[in-house]
């Protein structure tokens, strides 16, 4: 398989590890209570959004800057990347998230760690309600990503990285996964995987087949999923133009 032998592929996988590690470190760090004063949700959301925008801008031309398994899964469902690449991206993202959370755990005083901002269902919220919320929020995120990075779009306005960052806020499976691994607490953890994955798939299908259909045949889609041929940009040693990756533009 050409991807396994491509240095650009391994750079992209490492970029996903690197980007996710820092995203989780800064995002979870912002969610911790460092003072005894009021905890402003807006401050946490801004930190998540700006961290995501910065990292997407930094590694978007290398890997696409997914930093979220649900986004990678959405691109797979939309036949915009190979299954091989998607698996390696998701593994790298999970490892990066755990690394970022572990570093944050190590540099945070014990009396401030709490549960490391681990996502849990609040009292009165059922499993179905929590899953539905994750589905809708992730679907909105994926549609935003697909729309602002679509190479067929004419006259882009503003920054794609900022648009994605402020749509993202703290919507990432890994912000639930990383602290769950550290504390070995996986109670109802499936909600934060199943919901985003369903939402990501729905967003990809909605955008690619209804809102702005991609006129590609079944054979072309299968070729992309199998990774049977490299994109033109790979042969030109220019990963920025790869159609299988989430693309960004300058701030």
TrEMBL record:
Q: Which GO terms describe its cellular component?
A: anchoring junction; plasma membrane
Q: From the UniProt record, which GO molecular function terms apply?
A: structural constituent of eye lens; water channel activity
Q: One Pfam family this chain carries?
A: MIP
Assigned keywords, A-Z: Cell junction, Cell membrane, Eye lens protein, Membrane, Transmembrane, Transmembrane helix, Transport
Q: Which domain of life is it from?
A: Eukaryota
Subcellular location(s): the record lists: Cell junction; Cell membrane
Q: What is this protein called?
A: Lens fiber major intrinsic protein
Species of origin: Sparus aurata
